[in-house]
């Protein structure tokens, strides 16, 4: 029995056709994956179903009735909930307050906090987690916050749950919680739409998969009748080797050294990075990898420690100082730390390198645009022009723009914190290729990634971080997910 | 790559284009409508002398609007602009009265303005007082200073050479107007052609992302207040020269006109977006509105009501269009 049915849904934006007449059906009780490249139209499709946007043409039928388009409130009441690509929780409020936001329980005139905490607790338990309803959301890791999002969606008695890249920011361990929660919901009879760029998740969790390309519907397939390679070919329109590009150059001498870095969470971290090397930082969420990166970049204050580049001690008190010393950081959260959503693609890409494009203090647009266009093409950012606002790009394309900003900058040390978060398979392999290219030119890279295959595939050396300290150094011959996990968990 | 870019382009339905056009240029259209309306209602409105008069009247708020635009772009606000105009007029007049050579008096006044700008920058960026509160405090304090400087009395006796700043004519155009145009040109170049301007937009849009891109955000915002205070001080001197005296009440209420002009011009009160071109139109609208209402003998209190409503409409439209574009 079909529960949801899209009828020739079209969504046009100035200069872009995000959806070009998409029709397909969803069976009640299934977990249905939607896959496609960055900018294929997945998020747009989801937003038309939830009423966040109005389709230009076409409509959606839910349980035999046409959905009121562009009316999110009414659609929630019909039993459709969504978790969007970007978290939308209030960090200062408690877990329970977030779950029942806009949906509060009252006792007379006043909020019934006890009741809400109680309901939240049983809800969280039913999802298989032991998060406490009374704690502030900001104290939770991103993974647990995502579970709170899930609980919030489920609290609205939903029959159809839509998840847009729910696992993009999660580590392996946290993904397992998410899996568990999704399976429980399916058992309770909830139908689920699942958007993800991670093939293994789609194979593990989903019953069927629908593929979109450039806003067009391509095909819907049973998951057990399709192989990974086929799926990739359908999404990208060509075949992609699943291999990581090998290093072909010799590593240089030690270039960046950090000695005894200390701050709140980071304890006595020392290591060095060779010229042309890719050094991986592995660890669980909260282990302190991001904190180490931010210390080196001057984004957080350093309590003690020393940073030297090419043997020269550098005083780094701010990102400004770090960039002057040749260190760049691609931050982990693109929405709040990376992208300038209200500015154009070109302005974003050149933002950290404006000196290079100025002559006597005046910007030279020709020079600037030629360079930014080059990187936008290299990374295959999907857009009608480099004047498009970054806020209008799809999530993955925004990430590419932030990446381009750092590739354009002349830094000699680049720290990439989750560089491929939300990026499709095709673009991923291009990014790996680019990382090798820049290291060949002598740039040194520190890479943080929660995707273990990528981390092990790209790194010349891996440091395992646990509880703010480096507990183990691994070399390629010792690489295995088990070894990394063992040290990352503190054994 | 080329093919995907082409396939992304779709034909623009006419209705959408004209809507976009409207939302971008409505301020210019509103200006034209206002001018047409007043010239129909009043015979003297469209005379050359009246138009030049309007330009001369708006030159003070025009000069300040450039600084205010930059402040608002970073997500800040400057409520003290009117008081700064008053203080600088008084301070400069006091020095002139004391016989300090005009060039030196003007220079010292400008230095004083920079000093207050620096203090504001410090309060906002180092002590982290929100701009609204920091400049609200200064607004009251500086107005107090303006009165204290000469026991609440105006100061007369401005030398001829200084009067030229406010009353002179060059090539048939009032000198303050030329000053305003120069400030606009300078502001335009700063905002659109320099790294400073680009970083202003970026910082207003997302301060943390801007900081992590290597912008020294605190320094940038301090510079913005220095600039804004420099301009309001300068405007204060021009006003003093125009009215031939330092007036302790000088500039009272100007913050309202200036902020309205900037927001009318399409600068988002949340920071991060807006163009100086629009602000020019915003300034002109404020000038035409005051002048037209005076010509039509509209009661001063009614004028206040109108100006207040204009501010609310401008901000309302800005918010609505932000909200709409998300759909
Ligand atoms: N508000 C908007 N204005 C203009 N174009 C938009 C807007 N929102 C989306 N688009 C465009 O619509 C297309 C589809 O975007 P969508 O976000 O649906 O992609 P996606 O499949 O979710 O990609 P990703 O995997 O990167 O999240 C993209 O080309 C995007 O640039
Ligand atoms: Mg998306």
From TrEMBL, chain A:
Keyword Disulfide bond: no
PROSITE patterns according to UniProt: ABC_TRANSPORTER_1, ABC_TRANSPORTER_2
Annotated signal peptide: none
One example GO MF annotation: ATP binding
Keywords assigned by UniProt, alphabetized: ATP-binding, Cell membrane, Membrane, Nucleotide-binding, Repeat, Sugar transport, Translocase, Transport
Any GO BP annotation: monosaccharide transmembrane transport
Domain of life: Bacteria
Domain ABC transporter: 4-239, 251-491
Subcellular location: Cell inner membrane; Cell membrane
Broad class of the protein's primary localization: membrane
Name assigned to this protein: Sugar ABC transporter ATP-binding protein
Membrane topology summary: Peripheral membrane protein
Keyword Ubl conjugation assigned: no
Any single Gene Ontology cellular-component annotation: plasma membrane
InterPro entries: AAA+_ATPase, ABC_carbohydrate_import_ATPase, ABC_transporter-like_ATP-bd, ABC_transporter-like_CS, P-loop_NTPase
UniProtKB/TrEMBL annotation, chain B:
Principal subcellular localisation of the protein: membrane
Keywords: Cell membrane, Membrane, Transmembrane, Transmembrane helix
Membrane topology of the entry: Multi-pass membrane protein
UniProt GO MF annotations: transmembrane transporter activity
GO CC terms, sorted: plasma membrane
Keyword Isomerase among UniProt keywords: no
Source domain of life: Bacteria
KW Cytoplasm (keyword) present: no
Residues annotated as transmembrane: 21-42, 54-73, 80-98, 104-124, 131-149, 169-191, 224-241, 279-298
Entry-linked InterPro entries: ABC_transp_permease
Localization, UniProt: Cell inner membrane
Entry similarity comment: Belongs to the binding-protein-dependent transport system permease family. AraH/RbsC subfamily.
The protein's name: ABC transporter permease
Organism placement in taxonomy: Bacteria, Pseudomonadati, Pseudomonadota, Gammaproteobacteria, Alteromonadales
């Amino acid at each position: 029995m079909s529960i949801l049915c899209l009828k020739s849904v079209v969504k046009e934006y100035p200069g872009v056709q995000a959806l070009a007449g998409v029709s397909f059906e969803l069976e009640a009780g299934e977990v249905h994956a939607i896959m496609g490249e960055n900018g294929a139209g997945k998020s747009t499709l989801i937003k038309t179903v939830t009423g966040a946007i109005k389709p230009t043409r076409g409509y959606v039928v839910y349980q035999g009735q046409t959905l009121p388009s562009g009316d999110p409130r009414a659609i929630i009441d019909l039993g459709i909930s969504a978790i969007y690509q970007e978290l939308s929780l209030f960090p200062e409020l408690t877990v329970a307050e977030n779950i029942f936001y806009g949906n509060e329980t009252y006792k007379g005139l006043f909020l019934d906090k006890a009741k809400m905490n109680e309901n939240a607790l049983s809800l969280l338990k039913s999802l298989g987690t032991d998060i406490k309803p009374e704690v502030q959301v900001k104290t939770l890791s991103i993974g647990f916050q995502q579970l709170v999002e899930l609980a919030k969606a489920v609290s609205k008695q939903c029959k159809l749950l839509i998840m847009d890249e729910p696992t993009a920011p999660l580590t392996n361990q946290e993904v397992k919680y998410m899996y568990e929660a999704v399976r429980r919901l399916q058992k309770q009879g909830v139908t689920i739409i699942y958007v993800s760029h991670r093939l293994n998740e789609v194979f593990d969790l989903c019953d069927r998969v629908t593929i979109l390309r450039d806003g067009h519907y391509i095909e819907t397939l049973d998951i057990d009748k399709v192989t990974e390679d086929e799926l990739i070919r359908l999404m990208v329109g060509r075949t992609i080797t699943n291999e990581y590009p090998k290093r072909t150059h010799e590593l240089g001498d030690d270039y960046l050294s950090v000695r005894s870095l200390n701050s709140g969470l980071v304890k006595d971290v020392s290591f060095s990075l060779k010229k042309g090397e890719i050094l991986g930082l592995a660890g669980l969420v909260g282990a302190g990898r991001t904190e180490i990166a931010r210390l080196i970049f001057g984004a957080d204050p350093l309590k003690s420690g020393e940073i030297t580049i090419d043997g020269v001690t550098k005083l780094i008190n701010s990102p400004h100082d770090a960039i002057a010393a040749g260190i760049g950081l691609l931050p982990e959260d693109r929405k709040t730390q990376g992208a300038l959503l209200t500015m154009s693609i070109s302005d974003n890409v050149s933002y950290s390198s404006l000196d290079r494009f100025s002559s006597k203090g005046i910007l030279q647009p020709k020079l600037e645009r030629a360079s930014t266009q080059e990187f936008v093409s290299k990374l295959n950012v999907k857009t009608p022009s480099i004047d498009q606002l970054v806020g209008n790009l799809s999530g993955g394309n925004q990430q590419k723009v932030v990446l381009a900003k750092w590739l354009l900058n002349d830094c000699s040390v680049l720290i990439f914190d989750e560089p491929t978060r939300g990026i499709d398979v095709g673009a991923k392999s291009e990014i790996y290729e680019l990382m090798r290219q820049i290291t060949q030119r002598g740039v040194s890279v520190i890479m943080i990634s929660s995707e273990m295959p990528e981390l092990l595939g790209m790194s010349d050396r891996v440091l395992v971080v646990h509880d703010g300290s480096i507990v183990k150094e691994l070399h390629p011959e010792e690489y295995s997910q088990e070894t990394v996990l063992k040290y990352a968990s503190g054994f | 790559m080329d093919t995907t870019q082409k396939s992304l382009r779709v034909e623009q339905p006419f209705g959408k284009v004209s809507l976009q056009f409207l939302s971008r240029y409505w301020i210019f259209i509103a200006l034209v409508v206002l001018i047409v309306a007043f010239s129909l209602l009043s015979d003297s409105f469209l005379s050359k002398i009246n138009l030049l008069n309007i330009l001369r009247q708006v030159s003070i708020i025009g000069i300040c609007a450039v600084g205010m635009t930059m402040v608002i772009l970073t997500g800040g606000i400057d409520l003290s602009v009117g008081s700064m105009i008053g203080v600088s007029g008084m301070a400069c007049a006091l020095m002139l009265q004391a016989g300090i050579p005009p060039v030196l008096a003007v220079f010292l006044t400008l230095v004083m303005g920079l000093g207050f700008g620096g203090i504001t920058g410090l309060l906002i960026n180092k002590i982290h007082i929100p701009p609204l509160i920091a400049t609200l405090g200064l607004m009251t304090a500086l107005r107090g200073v303006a009165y204290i400087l000469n026991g609440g009395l105006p100061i007369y006796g401005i030398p001829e050479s200084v009067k030229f700043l406010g009353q002179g004519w060059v090539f048939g155009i009032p000198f303050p107007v030329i000053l305003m145009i120069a400030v606009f040109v300078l502001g335009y170049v700063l905002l659109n052609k320099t790294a400073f301007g680009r970083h202003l937009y970026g910082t207003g849009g997302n301060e943390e992302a801007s900081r992590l891109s290597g912008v020294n955000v605190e320094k940038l915002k301090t510079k913005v207040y220095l600039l804004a205070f420099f301009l309001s001080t300068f405007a204060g001197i021009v006003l003093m020269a125009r009215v031939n005296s330092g007036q302790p009440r000088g500039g009272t209420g100007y913050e309202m006109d200036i902020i309205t002009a900037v927001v009318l011009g399409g600068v988002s009160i949340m920071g991060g977006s807006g163009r100086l071109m629009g602000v020019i139109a915003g300034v002109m609208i404020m000038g035409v509105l005051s002048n037209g209402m005076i010509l039509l003998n509209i009661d001063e209190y009614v004028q206040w009501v109108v100006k207040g409503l204009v501010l609310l409409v401008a901000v309302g439209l800005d918010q609505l269009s932000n909200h709409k574009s998300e759909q």
